[in-house]
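lol ok so funny story. i was supposed to be doing the assay writeup but got distracted and ended up predicting the structure for this chain instead. priorities right. anyway since i did it might as well share w the group, maybe its usefull for someone
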Amino acid sequence: MSLTIHDLIRDYLSAAQNNIQVMRRHFGISNLLRARGEGLIPAQGNVQGEDALEFSFHGMGCAVKTKDYMVDFDFDANSECNSFDAWRLMLFAESQPGRYGALEQRDHIERELKDLEQKGVITKAKNLPNSSFYKMAL
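and the output, tada:
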């Protein structure tokens, strides 16, 4: 069975949220981006154990590498990740070669996202510094 853009978006958002939860538990802090800005947590490092990961904060987000994939995301005002763009979806798909097929190509992802936007499934995310971000429609 071939995975779809819906699967890619779901998996990406799930991976981002799961890793945010792992880092929150590890550091004992709920707002990771603010804690990073205040110097309470390092800009990059590792979390050991069952949910091992490497992380590197950047601008409004974080890149996380696990044994299974790499996910790069930006935080919203609530220190969550509920948005995505073609580039981040592509990086996530590419980090798992063969799993998402044609969805490892940015132009294919962009076409799929535009189609979902026209159908009202996703909308442009507002109040984010990058206007290329989408959110699931309510």
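The chain has a mean pLDDT of 93. Residues 5-136 form one domain.
back to the writeup now i swear
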